[in-house]
Amino acid sequence: MSLVDALQWRYAAKRMNGKKVDASKIESLLYAIQLSASGFGLQPYHILVIENEDLKAKIQPAAFNQPQIVESSHLLVFAAWNEVTAEKIDAFIQLVSKTRNVDLADLKAYKDAISGALLSRSVEDQVKWMDKQVYLAMGTALAAAAKLEIDSTPMEGFKPTEVDAILNLKEKGLHAVLMMAVGERDEVSDFMVNAKKVRWPKEELFVHIV
What we know:
alpha+beta, 4 strands, 14% strand
């Protein structure tokens, strides 16, 4: 299935049947998310991959009792850092040096660019920037899930502070931004399963400037 066909196939599943997604597909999905674009390549977030049924049940009330939380195979919680620090930038530059076999001295300009752009901001502005990076990762996740024929539901509809408390995210220096339920659509219970996809016509959506 081509990417376009996969995107035609996907929709935000309203009900899932509880079946487990094959582990190899989950690994491919997570690898795709790992490869997602982000500002400076910094990826200022972590993704919690939750299979534990009791934990999903605790999260469900904080997500307005959406059934996909507990019907999913896996629940992904996209959690951004609470702050960008010099130490985190240092760790990232060390990773770049090791991965690309580049001397740290040759990465000084890159490090200074990241530090200048991010450490000069207030923590509040840093968080706004980091939350946007999470949305980039979610976009990659949705497209990858579709290509793998894994049903998914992106979720903004939850109480972040409650999810943070359930998952002890504050202690981890994180805060929940988005969640994504992945599994298999319930073709009997999901009222949206046969609904046609509604999108603005391309003539209205795209503005060509030549």
